[in-house]
TrEMBL record:
Its main location: membrane. It is a peripheral membrane protein. This is ABC transporter domain-containing protein. It comes from Sinosporangium siamense. Residues 274-293 have a biased composition (Basic residues). Gene3D superfamilies: P-loop containing nucleotide triphosphate hydrolases. One of its GO terms (molecular function) is ATP hydrolysis activity. It is found in: Cell membrane. Keywords: ATP-binding, Cell inner membrane, Cell membrane, Membrane, Nucleotide-binding, Translocase, Transport. PROSITE patterns: ABC_TRANSPORTER_1 (PS00211), ABC_TRANSPORTER_2 (PS50893). CDD domains: ABC_NikE_OppD_transporters (cd03257). GO terms for biological process: peptide transport. Belongs to the ABC transporter superfamily. Pfam families: ABC_tran, oligo_HPY.
Amino acid sequence: MTLIEIRDLEVRIGGRVVSGVPELDLAAGRCTALVGESGSGKTTALLAVLGLLDGADVTGRVVVCGVDVLNAPEKILREIRGAKVALVLQSPQAALNPAMRLGTLMRRALARHGVKGAAARARAEQAVADVLLDPEILRRYPHQVSGGQAQRFAIALALALGAGVVAADEPTSALDVTVQAEIVAVLRRLREERGLALLLVSHDLALVSTVADDVLVMKDGGVVEAGPAARVLTAPAHPYTRDLLAAVPQMREQSREHRPDADGGEPDPGLRPGARRARRVTGSRRRRRRPHR
Ligand SMILES: Nc1ncnc2c1ncn2[C@@H]1O[C@H](COP(=O)(O)OP(=O)(O)OP(=O)(O)O)[C@@H](O)[C@H]1O
């Protein structure tokens, strides 16, 4: 079943094309990743899927869980956001109301989608258990949880609402290495067990190589190459993709000049050989924030 279908999507801001995706099909249980340099249009494409591009000139066709997003009334869009497609951001704590316990927050979100009382409590507890969090976390405030816990809570919120698609924008780049691997493991398990579909925006080629089935490589607001991750990341056809991949060891050498112990430490669980190196380098780009747990 196709959950996201994009055809000839073009987003213009101030007359300039800032993001364009000619074709994307995402089925249940699959993961498509948008990769590319900063400003290439990845986040804009993700926001288009959620119908969150007020003020932009958007053309083409975006169908999410049967809803024609670019032509749907705001009321319908509000219904699909959360209940069908959940957005997971780089720093979920920033998006959580600091004055509200996580349990309250989740129950309010459920109430907006018509689930209340004991059913909401049960749904919340099940969802946090599904991402391997102790239900006790529902009594805590956002500042009382780690970055990794907050990210798992954001995923749990998506599960509680019954979302079949998670749209994740750099979901691990604000987290430290061990926690990144935990989040990746949770996302992979949910795909396998629940058939969750994942639309992933990431700078992190290591993350992409471990979770994505398909990859779209974006540059200057367009897609320069698309195909199965196993092919695109090992035998890239486009010079830009080759540059992107070639930059990884090169940047590693640069970073080693500044950090003599750069290759120390144990390999990360859950990363394929070579991926750890790619992660370290790509994870140091502009959007990376200070790791926290
Ligand atoms: N609201 C806006 N107003 C003006 N320009 C915008 C707006 N939103 C995005 N852009 C421009 O659109 C282009 C694509 O931005 P986008 O955030 O989609 O890129 P990205 O690939 O996700 O980059 P990054 O990884 O840095 O977030 C950029 O040139 C950006 O400056």
